[in-house]
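User: Hi! I have a protein structure encoded as tokens and I'd like to know what sequence might fold into it. I'm fairly new to this, so please keep things simple.
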């Protein structure tokens, strides 16, 4: 259910040096000599297969997996590493689907084709990025995201090769867990997603077409948000999130949207009871663009964030302006 990005959405769209939540456990984020991530002492690591990206290619792959943890874990931080050519990644959690586990696919790859029970969980657009949940919910209890043993999911990985040589690319993802027995306030993703994008073709690159989509989604006024962000593809020129008449998040960068974070009290609550989002686009292409997963030929409009407390940690998905779970 880019991002919190750095897409939190994370997609959370999560950031490292460019705006992620403060990390109280920075040694966990150590990298290897070649820039890769050291697996966490407690938690798990997902490493995608390596793919060959030809010169000039702009491609998206989805790698399907089951998390290797053999017991339920409360995750306190996500971190990721993109090799050369990696433009962005999004982590989605899904219902069990053993037919896809271990697969690396290019078709039907992404959120728009994965079903309404797919949960955006983390995203990043920098080579090294991370997002940490608050160490204190305001009442002395740490905040964590519950990941069950062997949870199904997939990494959506976008690669662009602007060089004259083949690039060998992959993605590494670390989930850092609280110690066993630590009691946490459960956090979960909140995702608002528009399926209504339809940008007409431009008469020429000098006469682009414009368009926008928006929505207004119910959210409990008592829910506390620690991070929000938005995600579009390259036609996106402006996104924002409001709480009634209050501007909560404003962004002009489609490829590096810096999340808005609250690492301590007061966290943000949408006191109006509505999370309203809008995405604006300019299409310079000679073809129409609709909602879709392809970063090369389609568009997205996501508003994403992490909130707590969340009973069960299942999160919320709002399509257009209607909560579907």
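Assistant: Happy to help. Inverse folding works backwards from shape to sequence: for each of the 325 positions I chose a residue that suits the local structure. Here it is:
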């Amino acid at each position: 259910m880019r991002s919190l990005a750095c897409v939190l959405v994370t997609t959370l769209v999560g950031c490292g040096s460019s705006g992620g939540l403060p990390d109280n456990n920075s040694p966990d984020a150590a990298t290897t000599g070649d820039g890769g991530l050291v697996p966490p002492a407690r938690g798990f690591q997902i490493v995608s297969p390596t793919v060959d990206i030809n010169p000039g290619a702009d491609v998206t792959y989805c790698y399907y997996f089951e998390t290797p943890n053999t017991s339920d874990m409360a995750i306190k931080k996500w971190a990721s590493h993109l090799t050369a050519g990696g433009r962005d990644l999004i982590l989605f959690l899904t219902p069990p689907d053993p037919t896809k586990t271990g697969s690396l696919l290019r078709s039907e790859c992404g959120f728009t084709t994965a079903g309404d029970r797919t949960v955006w969980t983390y995203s990043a657009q920098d080579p090294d990025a991370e997002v940490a949940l608050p160490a204190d919910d305001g009442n002395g209890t740490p905040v964590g995201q519950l990941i069950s043993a062997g949870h199904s999911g997939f990494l959506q990985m976008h690669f662009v090769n602007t060089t004259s040589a083949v690039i060998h690319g992959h993605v590494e993802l670390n989930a850092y867990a609280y110690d066993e027995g630590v009691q946490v306030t459960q956090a979960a993703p909140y995702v608002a997603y528009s399926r209504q994008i339809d940008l007409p073709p431009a008469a020429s690159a000098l006469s682009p077409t414009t368009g926008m989509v928006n929505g207004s989604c119910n959210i409990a006024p008592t829910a506390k948000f620690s991070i929000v962000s938005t995600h579009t593809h390259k036609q996106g020129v402006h996104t924002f999130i409001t709480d009634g008449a209050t501007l909560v998040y404003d962004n002009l960068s489609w490829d590096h949207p810096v999340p808005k974070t609250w690492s301590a009290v007061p966290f943000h609550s949408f006191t109006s009871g509505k999370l309203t989002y809008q995405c604006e686009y300019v299409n310079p292409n000679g073809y129409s663009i609709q909602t879709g997963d392809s970063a090369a030929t389609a568009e997205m409009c996501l508003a994403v964030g992490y909130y707590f407390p969340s009973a069960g940690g299942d999160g919320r998905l709002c399509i257009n302006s209607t909560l579907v779970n």
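A useful reference point when you look it over: Residues 1-27 have pLDDT under 50 and may be disordered. Feel free to ask if any position seems puzzling.
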